[in-house]
Amino acid sequence: xxxxxxxxxxxxxxxxxxxxxxxxxxxxxxxxxxxxxxxxxxxxxxxxxxxxxxxxxxxxxxxxxxxxxxxxxxxxxxxxxxxxxxxxxxxxxxxxxxxxxxxxxxxxxxxxxxxxxxxxxxxxxxxxxxxxxxxxxxxxxxxxx
Length: 145
Prior knowledge:
InterPro entries: Glutaredoxin, Grx-like_ET, Thioredoxin-like_sf
Transmembrane segments: 29-50
Strand order of the largest sheet: 2-1-3-4
Domain Glutaredoxin: 70-127
CATH topology of the largest domain: Glutaredoxin
Structural class: alpha+beta
Strand content: 5-15%
Shape: elongated
Oligomer: single chain
Number of domains: 2
Largest sheet: 4 strands, mixed
CATH superfamily of the largest domain: Glutaredoxin
Keywords: Membrane, Transmembrane, Transmembrane helix
Protein name: Glutaredoxin domain-containing protein
């Protein structure tokens, strides 16, 4: 769990250090802008941006029951962020598994990607798709016509 928060905490600490230096130099406006920028970076790279993660076994069980895809992701991954942002509100319909919090999820991703933890890996109907196009993922949410 702590690994998921390492990058956001580093952004907050670095932003605070830089802002403190700017305040000492007498630039409170610049310090405020930089603190805000570092806080935004911390928020975007935190697990808070993604829907609540569940375990891999639970995600696979739910996916088998409702047919919705499972997304394996990790905080700080720009491709995961791209997928999450481009899915918009429909991201909540997917089952999200944070591989840094779930060892079984990390193992499933390694099994699908020749031993690599390449994310996002989206599993649809038991078939893994590594870094798929967000439009394709959105289309998988629609019921077949």
